[in-house]
């Protein structure tokens, strides 16, 4: 493989230089503004499962949160533990109950913040390196340059490679499994090399499943490619079965074939997959069922299996998460997809891409979670990006062949524009990577709800907010609402806030009003003085003073309002 890659680079030196530049820019974006990320709201669900691994516990760590596989949590916990902080308070947490965890280990987790982020950086780097290898192994250099560029500059991928999210772990193990699956699919039949790669692919997908539940669906692709490769052997088995039933079907497959290799691969892959799950789920297969049961208990509707009439939403959200040039390539790739569907003789690469894409389409048609959550959709979108990369291949359906342009000239002009455009979007948004990359699509969006969901720029940094609030607050003053900021500031108040709110709702059958908070909410005899509001939030009534009063303080990130802070003792009416 090493020699083949070197030959590719030697034959196309200009493109090789371009790929190297893309890789260097991708690496730069992954470490630029290092350490500027803060913890965020989702982290509240990560810490307990992450730390449970390293302290005595009597149930699977993933069950202390929302109910999910906890391999990714393990790596986060490993990073946090490297800080030397004592997180033993985690043993006192209750499953699925987050308020009060700040009291148990809030100070320690803040002290360990940079250490906790290290595994995210490492796996973000490993994922990008694997993407580069994957592209160079599967594609010609023209297609590989685009494929690498997409992942080098994707805001979504960059966000998952920097901010504390579990997605980067499942992305890495998924692409690793796909790389080994490709090597197994293209290896000579009945060889040791083929067997090893099928085993490694099974291990990769098992590790992906141990990080996120939906990744188990990659087994469908593995099984299908194995059956496709051993089609003659499978049909021979069916011929024997039909023959025993007195039916003369599939008679052209009556010649005896060697089933030993198929059986060996099947058993070895099953054993490898099961062994990894047995280890990562703490040596108990029952933990898998407990995780699934707990996850379904609070999100059953979104995980329901059935005909999903809104399957197209997954692709719509995908288009909002890529830039305008990627969107144009996506639309052209639909033409390529049609050509591949009706093509009689497909290459192994074309089959691999087509089957991967079929898996994505099948999942969007049957699982609502794939279309509702872009992070779930992205676990399976590698086949889609491969299809888009074929736009620049040397095949008859590529845009270069179709338009009959000089391949090198057209490609370099486009890629220079693409790299400059994509890098500038990503660099200007570092380290948040949260602005809408598809400005063109946002300009054409007229639906207000859609615009708010995908085009409204929102940034947040709870660490900086906590530092600012700490400079405002006197000891006898507090703020609303409580939440993740209490990991940084006033650790004890989140539990008090939660208990007050729940008591009020149970007695009043409604949310307490601002006046009631001011009058009755007195954590440690502190009086509510400040209200923190997200400018774009519509779910903060009755605390939102926005329509009537001018914020006393505006917390800005990259020139955009991130938070509004109202001082109840110095309110100023809007003019």
Supply database-style keywords.
575 residues, four-stranded mixed beta sheet, mainly alpha, 6 strands, 27 helices
State the low-pLDDT regions, or none.
none
How many strands, which pairing sense, and closed or not: the largest β-sheet?
4 strands, mixed
N- to C-terminal distance = 69 Å
User: Could you report the average pLDDT, rounded to the nearest whole number?
Assistant: 88
Given helix and strand content, the structural type is mainly alpha
Radius of gyration: 27 Å
Strand order of the largest sheet: 1-2-5-4
Q: Strand percentage, roughly?
A: under 5%
Helicity range: 55-70%
Strand segment tally: 6
Helix and strand arrangement:
Layout: H1 2-11, H2 13-31, H3 47-52, H4 71-81, H5 101-111, H6 113-138, H7 141-153, H8 155-162, H9 167-186, H10 192-209, H11 218-229, H12 231-244, H13 260-280, H14 286-299, H15 312-320, H16 324-342, H17 348-366, H18 368-372, H19 374-377, H20 382-389, H21 399-403, H22 407-428, H23 439-444, H24 448-454, H25 462-472, E1 477-480, H26 493-508, H27 514-520, E2 527-533, E3 549-550, E4 553-557, E5 560-567, E6 572-573
Parallel strand pairs: 1-2
Antiparallel strand pairs: 2-5, 3-6, 4-5
Helix pairs in contact: 2-6, 2-7, 2-22, 4-6, 6-7, 6-8, 6-9, 7-20, 7-22, 9-10, 10-13, 11-17, 16-20, 17-20
């Amino acid at each position: 493989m090493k020699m083949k890659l070197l030959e590719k680079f030697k034959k196309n030196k200009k493109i090789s230089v371009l790929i190297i530049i893309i890789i260097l820019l991708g690496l730069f974006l992954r470490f630029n503004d290092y350490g500027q990320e803060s913890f965020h709201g989702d982290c509240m669900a990560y810490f307990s499962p992450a730390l449970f691994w390293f302290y005595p516990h009597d149930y699977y760590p993933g069950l202390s949160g929302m109910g999910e596989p906890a391999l990714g949590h393990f790596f986060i916990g490993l990073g946090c533990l490297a800080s030397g902080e004592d997180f033993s308070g985690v043993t006192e947490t209750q499953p699925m109950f987050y308020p009060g965890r700040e009291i148990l280990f809030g100070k320690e987790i803040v002290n360990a913040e940079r250490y906790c982020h290290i595994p995210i950086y490492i796996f973000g780097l490993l994922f990008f390196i694997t993407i580069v290898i994957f592209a160079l192994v599967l594609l010609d250099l023209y297609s590989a340059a685009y494929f690498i560029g997409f992942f080098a500059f994707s805001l979504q991928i960059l966000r998952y490679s920097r901010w504390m999210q579990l997605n980067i772990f499942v992305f890495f193990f998924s692409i690793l499994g796909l790389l080994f699956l490709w090597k197994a699919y293209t290896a000579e039949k009945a060889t040791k090399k083929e067997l090893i790669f099928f085993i490694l692919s099974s291990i990769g997908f098992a590790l992906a499943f141990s990080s996120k539940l939906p990744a188990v669906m990659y087994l469908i692709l593995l099984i299908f490619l194995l059956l496709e490769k051993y089609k003659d052997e499978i049909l021979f088995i069916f011929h024997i079965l039909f023959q025993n039933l007195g039916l003369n079907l599939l008679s052209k497959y009556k010649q005896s074939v060697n089933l030993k290799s198929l059986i060996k691969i099947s058993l070895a892959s099953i054993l490898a997959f099961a062994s990894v799950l047995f280890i990562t789920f703490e040596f108990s297969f029952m933990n898998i069922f407990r995780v699934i049961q707990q996850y379904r208990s609070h999100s059953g509707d979104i995980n329901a299996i059935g005909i999903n009439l809104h399957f197209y939403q997954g692709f719509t959200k995908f288009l909002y998460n890529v830039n305008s040039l990627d969107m144009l390539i996506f639309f052209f790739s639909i033409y390529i997809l049609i050509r591949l569907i009706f093509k009689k003789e497909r290459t192994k690469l074309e089959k691999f891409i087509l089957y991967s894409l079929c898996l994505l389409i099948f999942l969007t048609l049957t699982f609502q979670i794939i279309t509702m959550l872009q992070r779930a959709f992205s676990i399976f979108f590698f086949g889609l990006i491969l299809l888009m990369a074929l736009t620049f291949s040397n095949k008859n359906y590529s845009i270069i062949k179709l338009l009959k342009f000089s391949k090198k000239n057209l490609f370099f002009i486009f890629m220079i524009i693409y790299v400059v455009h994509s890098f500038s979007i990503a660099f200007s948004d570092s380290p948040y990577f949260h602005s809408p990359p598809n400005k063109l699509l946002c300009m054409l969006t007229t639906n207000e709800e859609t615009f708010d969901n995908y085009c409204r720029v929102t940034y947040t940094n709870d660490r900086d907010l906590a530092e600012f609030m700490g400079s405002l607050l006197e000891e006898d003053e507090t703020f609303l609402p409580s939440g993740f900021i209490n990991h940084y500031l006033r650790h004890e108040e989140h539990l008090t806030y939660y208990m007050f709110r729940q008591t009020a709702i149970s007695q009043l059958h409604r949310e307490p009003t601002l006046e009631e908070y001011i009058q009755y909410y007195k954590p440690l005899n502190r009086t509510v003085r400040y209200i923190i509001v997200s400018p774009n939030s519509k779910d903060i009534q009755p605390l939102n003073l926005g329509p009537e009063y001018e914020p006393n303080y505006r917390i800005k990130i990259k020139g955009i309002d991130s938070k509004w802070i109202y001082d109840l003792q110095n309110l100023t009416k809007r003019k």
